[in-house]
Amino acid sequence: MLTHHQADLQRLFDARVPRYTSYPPANHFSATAGGENQAAWLASLSDDDAISLYVHIPFCRRLCWFCACRTQGTSNLRPVAAYVKDVLHEIGLVAARMTARPSLSRLHLGGGTPTILDASLAKTLLTGIFDAFDPGEDFEFSVEIDPTEASEAALRMLAEFGMNRASIGVQDFEPAVQSAIGREQSFAQTRRAVKILRKAGVRSLNVDLLYGLPHQTDETLARSLHKVLDLAPDRIALYGYAHVPWMSKRQSMIEAATLPQAQQRFELAEVARALLLQSGFTEVGIDHFARPGDGLALARDAGRLRRNFQGYTDDTAETLIGLGASAISRFAGGYCQNAAATSAYSRMVRADRLAGQRGFVLSSADRLAARMIEQLMCHFTLDTGGLEAEFPGARGDIASATRRLLDTWPDLCRYEAGRVVIARRGRPLIRVIAATLDRFVTPGMSHSLAV
Ligand SMILES: C[S@@+](CC[C@H](N)C(=O)[O-])C[C@H]1O[C@@H](n2cnc3c(N)ncnc32)[C@H](O)[C@@H]1O
Ligand code: SF4
Q: For an engineered disulfide with 183, which of 49, 64, 86, 242 has Cβ 3.0 to 4.6 Å away?
């Protein structure tokens, strides 16, 4: 039985576990699944389905050392323009496999840096997207924005096409931290982008921040947070910095010895959390904070919060179609990831082939595990009654998952009114707790730290 004195906490915080933006995580995708199912999964969609689109733009003018995203550097727009053409071609290939025309629930442009597109490229891309797909009711369109790489004309063009949510990368405003992570960005540059977005009518702004960065202390983090609060965002994503130089080579520019250790990371997260709660934000899941009336907070309160590759979402569409190099699609039957290298992706699309290359076919047991892990990550509970209704015939598996959680975490889980509830103090460890239900977790696997 586990007791949670200091040493045990330290060991658990040091655990390396998936972030569970999907189950199973993408490192379990295989070359024999997904790609070959993609056409059939697309054909199985009906007019009544809602779908969401994720478009990956894998280019940046600067390559920040801390960044673990799939991206590549470019000093000019030539490769970006060629890539936009490939994405438009891919849209044609995908739409041709769909016999139905389901409506769009969400469109998200992510990267890399989508705002590297100038106004004219943004217009070309969005015209192609909206020619092929029709926005549904409550459609939302969000874009990841690097304030140092976002022209006013491009931002206004995105807004003209209906961008109503923007996610602004900040990470940290402290100069010493910025220079240690290879990302310089002034408050003035950031404020300028915020002003343009608000003026263009974008109603919801998110800011991305990181804790666990080199030279961060409680004081520097609080200072950065106050600056962020001056920007009046509606949401804040506060991610733990994932130092995974074996996956993201540029992170080797960051001196490992300068990184806060597990206990310090935990304290940094707690300092930020207290400050944000005091400032009127509410907590959503493990790493998001939202103003009480914000869509994520409402989804949490109504039990509708979901998890996807971008983190938390209030999107209810079951199908997500990923476009562009390395983008992942999620269908009822499983996951399909496009060729990761831009060159391989472009070759496939130009040869009129769907770009899916690897993936995972979900069994009914995987689908149940995925839902249970999502519930834990979103609501810190396992709703056994709800699961039994959603997965008729899985009562035995749900009961055994319940037992496993209660037996493994007797100090942190309790059973009450048809739910397994994780104690408040167990929330920072939710990824470790969720891993109890993950049949793929083996000791010694390489993921990021649990907090
Ligand atoms: C595609 S990136 C940023 C978008 C845009 N290019 C920018 O720089 O503002 C999306 C977010 O991923 C998060 N991220 C990137 N690398 C990370 C890492 N190693 N650990 C945790 N979060 C990371 C950052 O918070 C970042 O804002
Ligand atoms: S943080 Fe943004 S700008 Fe920096 S490398 Fe990553 S995607 Fe590119």
A: 64
In the reported structure, the alpha carbon of residue 92 is separated from the centroid of ligand 2 by a whole-number distance in angstroms of 29
Does residue 169's CB lie within 6 angstroms of at least one atom of ligand 1?
yes
Residue ranges, comma separated, of all CATH 1.10.10.920 domains in the chain are 364-437
The CATH topology of domain 364-437 is: Arc Repressor Mutant, subunit A (1.10.10)
Beta-carbon count within 10 A of 410 CB: 12
**Taking CB atoms and a 6 Å cutoff, what residues make up the pocket around ligand 2?**
60, 62-64, 67, 69, 71, 111-113, 146, 169, 183
> How many A from CA of 173 to the centre of ligand 1?
14
On the question of pLDDT at 447 being above 60, the answer is no
Using a 6 Å cutoff on CB, does residue 285 contact ligand 1? no
Q: What is the DSSP letter of 249?
A: G
pLDDT single digits (tens) 248-290: 999 999 999 999 998 899 999 999 999 999 999 999 999 999 9
Average the pLDDT over 41-45 and give the result.
96
Read off the pLDDT of each residue in 411-427 and give the average, rounded to a whole number: 95
Whole-angstrom distance, CA of residue 126 vs CA of residue 88: 9
Residue 63 CA, closest ligand 2 atom number: 5
Mean pLDDT of the chain: 94
Give DSSP secondary structure letters for 330-392: EETTEEEEE-SSHHHHHHHHHTT---EEEEEEPPHHHHHHHHHHHHHHHHSEEEHHHHHHHST
Q: What is the pLDDT of residue 13?
A: 54
Counting atoms of ligand 2 from 1, which one is nearest the CA of 250? Answer: 5
Least confident range of 145-159, 324-338, 428-442: 428-442
CATH 3.80.30.20 range(s) for the chain read 21-342+353-358
Rounded Cα distance, 381 and 375, in Å = 6
CA of 327 to the centre of ligand 1 (A): 16
Cα 63 from chain centre: 19
Distance CA 336, CA 355 (A): 9
Q: 306 with 374: CB under 8 angstroms? A: yes
- Superfamily designation of domain 21-342+353-358: tm_1862 like domain (3.80.30.20)
The model's confidence at residue 449, banded by pLDDT at 50, 70 and 90, is: low
